Amino acid sequence: MTTAPTDRPAPNDAPPRARILAVTSGKGGVGKTFISANLAAALARRGLRVLVLDADLGLANLDVVLNLHPKITLHDVFTSDATLEQAVLPAPGGFSVLLAGSGLVEYSRLTPEVREKLLAVIEEVTPRFDIVLLDTGAGISDVVLYTVSLADEVLIVATPEPTSMTDAYATIKVLAMQQSRRELRLVVNQVPRAGDGRGVALQLQQVIDRFVSSAVDTPVRLELLGEVPLDPSVRDAVKKRQLVVETLPGTPAAQAVSQLAARLSP
């Protein structure tokens, strides 16, 4: 299992580079990739150079969400069949993407080769952007945990459903114990009523205080970055493989994502 993020060079030794934000979740189906893609577009609209790296190795679906049909993917970079410059593509919404190939079983386990190649790719792209979003897989597999360990900040995506909250807590606990994460951010997606996100954050924080913070040196703090309402426009945009912040910017979900971007911006 992965420990604290020590693989990356110390800030004093590195040139100016992007903030790396891992977007992750305890379970699938909570809208993690939707948040990653639309958040990237909202950040780009604020004048930032943004890259989304599809780090859900083996079960990638960012290309589907963005209606892209890449000829070159991260797999080709890993195998040296293409350069990183060839693999980084423009996406709708004004940001860049580095897509992973779907269904590649060899990337479902954290082998030394996968570890080395993923680290090398991230180190190479960070000087070129202001923000890099790592759209990780769901859960706490070795691949997911290693990907998260390479990030400066972690954004947990959850919904108000009990199973999602339980899995979000499990993810937070592992990140606190194994990576010494003491500050994490939370986005509560698919919120049926305004303010429900705050209730989810409070419940999670109470459980964290009781079972995690009591077992570590420094209390673990979960910051609610915001909530995204349950909005029919999201389903429509996803079906059409469009970004809701681009095609339906006035809808509640699009405005909520724009607010997330504003809070993340420097």
From TrEMBL:
GO terms for molecular function: ATP binding; ATP hydrolysis activity. Transmembrane segments: none annotated. It comes from the Bacteria. GO terms for cellular component: cytoplasmic side of plasma membrane; cytosol. GO terms for biological process: negative regulation of cell division. Signal peptide: none annotated. The keyword ATP-binding applies. Keywords: ATP-binding, Cell projection, Cilium, Flagellum, Nucleotide-binding. The keyword Chloroplast does not apply. Pfam families: ParA. CDD domains: FlhG-like. PANTHER family: CELLULOSE BIOSYNTHESIS PROTEIN BCSQ-RELATED, SEPTUM SITE-DETERMINING PROTEIN MIND HOMOLOG, CHLOROPLASTIC-RELATED. This is Flagellar biosynthesis like protein.
